[in-house]
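Quick question: what would this complex look like in 3D?
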Amino acid sequence: MLDAVREVQATQAGDLAVRWNCKAGKCGSCSAEVNGIPRLMCMTRLDGLPTGEPVTVGPMRSFPLIRDLVTDVSFNYEKAAGIPSFQPVPAGADGKRRMYQEDVERIQEFHRCIECFLCQNTCHVVRDHADLRPHYSGPRSFVRIAALEMHPLDAGDRLPLLKDGAGIGLCNVTKCCTEVCPEQIRITDNAIIPLKERVADRYYDPIAAFLRCFKRTP
Amino acid sequence: MSEANITAHESDVLVVGAGGAGLRAAIEAAATGARTTLLCKSLLGKAHTVMAESGIAAALGNVHGEDAWQAHFRDTMLGGGSMNDWRMARLLAQEAPGRVLELEAWGAVFDRTPEGLIRQQDAGGHRYARLAHAGDRTGVEIMRTLQQRAVQLGIEVHMECSVQQLLTRGGRISGALALRRATGQFAHFRSNAVVLATGGGGRAWKVSSNSQEHTGDGVNLALQAGAALTDMEFVQFHPTCMTGPGSAQGTLVSEAVRGAGGVLRNAEGRRFMFDYIPERLRGETAPTETEADDWYATRQDRRRPPELLPADVVTRAIDAEVRAGRGFKNGGVHLDIATRRSSDEIRRLLPSTCRRFALLAGLDITREPIEVAPACHYSIGGVRVEAETAATSVPGLYAAGEVAAGVHGASRLGGNSLADLLVFGRRAGMHAALHALGTEPPAKVSAGESKDVARIVRLVEAPLGRSKGENPYLLQRELQECMQAHVGVFRTRSGLEQARDKIARLRRRAAKISAAGPRLYNPAWHLALDLESMLAFAQATTLAALAREESRGCHAREDFPAPSAEFGATSIVLRSSLEGLRMTREAVNAMPEEFRKLMVPDELKQFFEEQSTWVRTKSTSGSGAATPAAGNSKVTG
């Protein structure tokens, strides 16, 4: 698909606006909607699309259009800047940091993210509820927060952000983000649901709330 | 466009480029106390660094306790054919472990050893398993970590903002003029120090593993500002890249496929690498298929298969086979893992390679061989810098990462580029900050500078105003074809001269490019501007390749197939002058005795061996087309 767009650009419409960098599915620049489906153009083969009918390619619809296939994705960068960063626990007595492979495999899945923003583009909350955007960060942010919260050596706490500013409660778990992820990160199952559980445990667990009443009494 | 539409910005340090080196430089400059601004040509986080797969070389000693910086230094110098700036190679080896551990403290998660430490894997040319890695996506891991660190520090970032020219005042750096791609407006950044971290120039070649950003911008900006280039002739080609379809051509096929048992075969079905074992590596390379296959089972106490010879040797062997008419239809040879390992094993060992081939080429590598050929991969040469400070010859101008020259010598070891980004990115950021903080803040814009800015704006806008003229896309294709044909894996005087003349003609035609269309995100306009850099990069590479009349590292001259002692001690240095590029030959800094002692005498000798480093070493049923005329093998000296 990207080749086709670039050929049109080279021979017919030099100013056709499109972002691309690596042409190998690693940079996440060429996100678009091909026949209405959000995907990376470089990883979409034309021979995999139905023949005999026109192929449509359009910009990601959830973000403001700059021109042609290029959109203003600054929403995603603003949300990223609001996430409290990694806070390491002190290194071991020998100055080394130890983590075990089985403990980091889950967050390594999250670290595969190439920030193509297809999940953000597809998410119903981002797409259909502009009014909620100030209070909702979207699946990419949840993946990032999950990577930090589940990091064996992180001492930070992002649950207050998740509950309020990032609005994880607004996600209604339709798994559309997972479906479009080109890195096949299981966003809903592995990141969002465990985070929802953590938020629920802290803020909405009736038994814990009951016990907290007693803790407060001196 | 009137000047009123140019936005003005001021900082102490301006970093141009937001890949690994640029981000690391910006982080260090900010940490040193400088107001720091970071410019990236694409969106933040999309730089070519994300494409690095294998890992970052650092003598942590987590897998082999006996590894130490001295061994990493030795391997780097050996790989570079002694052309490295030895001081840079030393700093690289000494500081890489610290840079890797620092990434871990910033949240990076590398694969682990059973003891819970950072796992390290093997790579060609490294004596010990030394590459810290995060699966086969180490570049992404490093980029995200640095990106998030930079955001955390509150560094000012301008995305899709490409620098058109560096500004100087009295011979010192005073800032840069940049074009904002999204709006087509200009931005004037004033700062007393600029760090160039713009990457290489691989997009000037037709078959390239490089991201589209690698258009040689930093080399062009540095030349215009008066800085010197060196080692431009050393362009590394990766031996095994996809040959198609479409733009999948050039996509890297990792060395891991060969490491897992994949072998190279020509169209005659011959496992041809046995014909290309260099004399110096005969002792450690298996001479027969049986012995080579044994190695995969034990990996110890056996001689290695010839498919795992140094990258330059494999690159030249594949290129020679194809040129001798023993290639397949897309101009490559077969890399066969399908008949060598079970489907399950292949899927387990090479998950991302399997997936990429299925998606990009519709090919099941567990059932069919892959057609591969070399592709332009890494620009070893670039802007000449001081080892300790990353300073160029222009006061206030620094360079780090692929745009800078020196650390890799005549050929680069896998894993050393990621180490290079961090070690010298940090040094560049720190010294740029110290320089800027030690000078007066940028003064009011002088009349001379305003005039300069207006002149640059006019030049940059010119292609937009031409309704008829050359098509930038087609001009780029002509340049890419030319570089591929004449400044590729093998070079000859006549080919290089043709390329030189062609580039001169293309430069004249580039002055008449039309990029008619709107200001707003107009890629034809962006390409027209990038072409200037690509042409400058191509010209410098071609002239330097013409001058180096020997074969060394990744520079292979068919007419001069042997290394020469004279050139082994000489760097080709280029500077801009009124008449075009001016070339000088300068002596490579000699290593002091204490460092020479780290090298084994036999190894030192191989730098100067008279035997050709690349000719086909064994005659077979095929023609001897790969062997050049013997009469030319001794020259200069």
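Answer marked as accepted. Strands of chain A lie at 31-34, 37-40, 57-58, 65-67, 70-71.
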